Amino acid sequence: MNGRLAQLGERLVRNEEVASSNLVPSIQEIHRMPFMGGSAFAMARDIGEGYILLNINILKRMAPEELKMLRFEIDRLLTTTRGEQPSPDQVADLQSRNRKIARLNSAVSMINNQLMMK
Questions:
Q1: Domain ranges of the chain
Q2: What is the SS3 assignment for 13?
Q3: Sequence-separated (6 or more) residues with CB below 8 Å from residue 66
Q4: Which of 36, 53, 74, 118 could be a cystine partner for 44, CB 3.0 to 4.6 Å?
Q5: Model confidence over 58-87: pLDDT tens digits?
Q6: DSSP of 28-94
Q7: Distance CA 105, CA 35 (A)
Q8: Radius of gyration (C-alpha) of the chain in whole angstroms
Q9: Counting beta carbons within 10 angstroms of the beta carbon of residue 97, is it exposed (0 to 12), middle (13 to 18) or buried (19 or more)?
Q10: What is the pTM of this model?
């Protein structure tokens, strides 16, 4: 009997510890985080790779300073991407590079439009 009571007590303590630690961030914490991915560079990289589809709803939550930081990082990534020239016989690499440039250019134009509206 003693062993079963001890196990039950340990299980209750463990359950209370798990219940008290909130692992999922609240909605308010998510809305306070301006950049998806944690930083402007990470968000710019993810936009270029196609992991984040930038839209007006994402940009509305950002302050003008944050939009300018994101635009700076996207411009920097665009310069780097344009500088990387794969050989002409590597068609898949050329297509991937051109899609990345197109996504980044689209993001820059959306950010510029949002900055003009604010």
A1: 27-117
A2: helix
A3: 34, 35, 40
A4: 74
A5: 999 999 999 999 999 999 999 999 999 999
A6: HHHHH--STTSSHHHHHHHHHHTSS---HHHHHTS-HHHHHHHHHHHHHHHHHHHH----TT-HHHH
A7: 18
A8: 23
A9: middle
A10: 0.69
